[in-house]
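In response to the reviewer comment on reproducibility (Comment 2.3), we provide here a single inverse folding case reported in full, input and output, so that an independent group could reproduce the run without further information from us. The structure tokens appear first.
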């Protein structure tokens, strides 16, 4: 009598199990990478929102300090961001040379125009500082940290309504799904 050997041959089954495990692990890693990317975009948007709120709050505090200026002084100032303002109403250091730039004596309307320029414009956007702007030293003011809003939108819009001034900071979202970006805003209402 001959003994029958019931040996089943299952070649390759462990290899298939390993491949399925690898596939599941890869899908999990891709999901985790997407979650991490979403978290980074949200962090960028949160940083931009904080910067926008800081800019509008700073302008509101400057308005309170310049009590002699009117709401009209702030809204009628024609801001040219490609040049430094004609009246520099606050001491600052020239970031290119490191020399102190002394403020000039300003009347309340000039101070209002200077405050609006600093809130709306970027020092690195002027010809004076742009030539020396690099990735390492190209940020000279709070506006330099806020990303440029979608085209046609002012970075800081000022709208007067009687004794109220509504300031709206606009910036481009880091988490936008389109290349043009999504324009986000933050508003502050100041009343005199």
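Designed residues, in position order:
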């Amino acid at each position: 009598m001959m003994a029958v050997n019931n040996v089943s041959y299952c070649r390759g089954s462990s290899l298939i199990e390993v491949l399925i495990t690898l596939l599941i692990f890869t899908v999990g890693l891709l999901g985790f990478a997407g979650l991490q990317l979403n978290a980074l975009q949200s962090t960028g948007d949160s940083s931009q929102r904080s910067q926008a709120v800081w800019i509008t709050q700073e302008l509101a505090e400057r308005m309170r300090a310049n009590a002699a200026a009117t709401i009209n002084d702030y809204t009628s100032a024609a801001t040219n961001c490609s040049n430094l303002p004609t009246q520099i109403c606050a001491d600052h250091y020239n970031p290119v040379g490191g020399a102190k730039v002394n403020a000039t004596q300003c009347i309340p309307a000039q101070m209002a125009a200077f405050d609006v320029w600093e809130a709306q414009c970027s020092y690195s956007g002027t010809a004076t500082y742009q030539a020396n702007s690099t990735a390492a030293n190209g940020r000279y003011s709070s506006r330099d940290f806020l990303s440029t809003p979608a085209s046609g939108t002012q970075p800081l819009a000022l709208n007067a309504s009687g004794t109220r001034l509504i300031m709206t900071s606009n910036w481009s979202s880091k988490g936008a799904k389109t290349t043009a970006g999504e324009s986000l805003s933050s508003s502050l209402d100041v009343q005199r």
